[in-house]
Amino acid sequence: MVRFHDGRKATGFSLLEVLVAIVVLSVGLLALAALQGSLSRASADAKARARVAAMLTARIDELRSGGYGSLAPEGAAAPLTSVEGAAGDGCDNDGSADDWLDCAREQANLGSLSVQQTVNTWYGDATFATPAPAPANQNPRTAQFKRVGLVATWTDATGGVHSNQLVSDISSMSLTNFVVVPPDPTENPTGGPIVRTIDPATSGVLPIAMGPEDQQMMNGTGNPTPELIGQGKNQEIVGTRFSVLNYTPPQQFGDSSVVVTKRFDNEVIKCSCRYGAGGANLPEIYRTALWPAIWTGDAYAVHIPDGNIAAPGQTKASGPRSGVTQSELCQECCRDHHDSGTGVEFDPERVGEEIKYDAAANGALSPANTNGGTYVDSCRLVRIDGFWRTAADLYQRQFGLLETKPDDNGVPAKSREPTDAAVAQYTTFVKDYLALYDGSQAVPPGATPQAEFLSEFPTTPITLPVVSNTDYRFLHARGLYVDHLEEKAREKVSEAFADGDDDPCPSGDAEADCILQFLPFTTANLTEIAAWTAAPEGIINVNSANLLATDPDDPSGGRTTGIANGTAQNTAQTRSSNSGIAVYSPNVNLGGVDEADVDETHQQSQQFDVGGPPGPTFDVRALGGGGNPFVFFSLGIDNDVECFKPAGTDHRCGTSPGTILPQQGTVSIRRYNYEDTTSTQMSFTCQGNKAASGIVAVPTFHNFTLASATFNGVNGTIAASVNEGMLIESTSVLFAAVAEGGLAIATFTEEGSPQLATIDSCKASQGTFTQITWNTPWR
Q1: CA of 149: how far to CAs of 82, 170, 172, 713, in Å?
Q2: pLDDT, tens digit, for every residue of 310-320?
Q3: Edge-to-edge strand order for the sheet containing 521-525?
Q4: pLDDT one-digit tens code per residue, 139-174
Q5: Residue 662 to residues 468, 618, 619, 636, 743: CA-CA distances in angstroms?
Q6: Cβ distance 728 to 669 under 8 Å?
Q7: Contact 761, 635 (CB under 8 A)
């Protein structure tokens, strides 16, 4: 048989090929399905990890805000666990202590979530190598911090176990750096890093040269500035801060920068304390009372007696009084500031035993009850290795006035700056006085510095040719402070006077220059801190409404004008110890270390001779409203001129010479609304969910309106009030005829009930307020 083949190949897929394709496709689809599941699980795991990490971070922040002393227990605590479906383990946001854990579990869609907390205290000097327990023979200066570890463990939907850990080191101390560092010079000196700042010799700062001539250094004290607490219009002044710098003279590097070799930060505060409020009532790190920080000849250090015996304050268990707005450093002040009469003391020059005093509302002092009683105190603190430590008390050795510069026309005291001659005389005086320290005793022998200073600085009377509300004259007050020298400092000073190989004062250098670098001295601008008073009253007007927060280039303290012909004295006065520099209201008794401290004052007077014919005057009497509102007038060539108020009299408005009355004029009255406090029982939940209650002094606002205004019995036209701020509201009155010797009477009435502040935030301990921040919308 013959077979024929057409030459074409068969078409289609064989069964084997189809089976292979199906297998390959199935494997690919299964891989994609597995990948999709893996991606879903990875996404869920990432979400869970992110939520757990956020929970741990928030928990650390919560523990940190609760306070150093609240970080307990020591070591590993029992784990906290939240389980899906378990009773009470739900995110109900009911304020329960475990909501943070329950909510994290639910939001991460976990079956269970547990967290274990571990707290260890680490101690060390140069290095931190020892966790808890505390090292043997620990002394109060041993540095420490707490290391907090949180380990979270959870199970996923498949039952897999996962964990995450967060560790943080916590201390209740804060560090602050105020040095402004300019750009480095093009050529740096060798010898290691340097700390530089702009020349600190600004307005109000008088540098004193010290040290050997070939190693000249400057000592300059910055202008005291206020320590403010609160925010915005709720800020209050609770103390003053100033820094003492040792630095190289400027221009060393061809610019205005200087090299800072030493910096001593000081803060002086006023505190209200209570016996028994310390001890276990304070956070753990604050419970151990310290001895005074004293000058060693080179720096400040906390005194540690032989045997490391407890400081006197340890048995007093004093702490800050609750419900009082004051510096947080009052914890250290109230705790430490106690003397036993033996060894190194905070007030080594005190006469008699230490007695604490409480201050009544009128400023009167009475001995405090040592069994739970309250008292007022004032402390100086210095920064040592970044920590604020209670230091030995300030001692003002001299206080006086420096002649201020005239203007370009030679009119005296028209500038706020001391004259070059006064600065030179004052510098010489400081060096001569400090040279009296020879290391043989804690204070210099010989005549009192105040007598020496007054003999060198005769104060020439300042003449005001005519009575004027706008002819301002300025004064400058200065105080010299030198610490009581303890043994280490005296030894250092003695070495400076000794001759030998280790003599720190090379031959030929003046001892007055060389000795200064070993003495703890401060020469401070007290213009805004001193109390300024006029005597007799009615001839000059003296500004004592000091504004410590203002620019030191424009101080208001001691500013003087003439208001009547005659001669009067402007007297500046300060208290001699801590309480004299703690705040800017020295006329009010804010409490010294003891009763005698209030009476120890230094003062100096400047004579003013006021002459020449003034313009005609009239008076303004304000009834109701604030106790001492401001009064201004506008008429003729006088526009918005302030009327002065001698004590116990009406506001006296003096016009310019040549003014003819009667004529139409406007009187503006300002700051008649005022704030005081009302003692009120309050309850509130403070930081850390801590409840507190008690009677507190609540800021209270009184709002007034000008109800009527007359001049010699004739009504004036009252304009709408201008509210630039509720406490500085003003109202103007237009009078048709302002007559010489006439009397304007402005009567205010209160609008509605006084407005009480509300609590914005607070801190509490054992159910009582320790600090309150108020909502005061009128500020």
Answers
A1: 19, 11, 17, 78
A2: 999 999 999 99
A3: 396-402, 476-482, 521-525
A4: 544 567 788 999 999 887 677 788 888 888 877 554
A5: 20, 10, 14, 10, 12
A6: no
A7: no
